Amino acid sequence: MKSTTPPQDASEEGTPVSVKIRERLALAHKRFYANDNIADFVQPGELELLLDEVELKMQGVLDSLVIDTAGDHNTGNTARRVAKMYLNEVFKGRYVQAPPITEFPNAEHLNELMIVGPITVRSACSHHFCPVIGKIWIGVMPNEHTNVIGLSKYARLAEWIMGRPQIQEEAVVQLADLIMEKTQPDGLAIVMEASHYCMAWRGVKDMDSKMINSVMRGVFLKDSTLRREFLALIPRKG
Ligand SMILES: [Zn+2]
Prior knowledge:
The chain is an alpha+beta fold. About 35% of the residues lie in helices and about 20% in strands.
């Protein structure tokens, strides 16, 4: 049965919301890789529509896996649950704006090495969408002009960056860029150590392998003594 009254916006009718968002991104020449944030291109209310769309596509995956989701009470609502998990939880960092961070002027003129961590981080690899779970340590070398942010804010920034399908090497660079931009320190060092479940659950099935990487900026690049001090102070393997 077709309605006799034409839809309000005939050209938009039936266009999946993901297509509309992609069109906006393309128009603005914005990259939308797995670990890019696209919040600026998602209009109010569209996340709900995206949820419905992902649920539908996820149901298609379950159908193609030949799982009787109509009969099987365990998987009856799995498509919806997975869609919610992706959009509202594990990949939320793609779809929402950065957490608000209040910056304070460095009134105490702190200029000593400050280390934050370990901060537990949770992500998923872009290659397999398998969990990546680990810890990061952040070393900040402030100067008198550096903005100071509360310790818990580093964890919130990390959560936002890690809440996307990621590649560990790129995740730490994104986090370093963000902290540099927000606080303008003389130097910044980040070390991340994580288990990649695509290597534990599948592939080589090695339960113990961890990947460690680091990024150094500013004085941490130039001053090897400072770099050694930071690396000596972070209690890894703890
Ligand atoms: Zn992987």
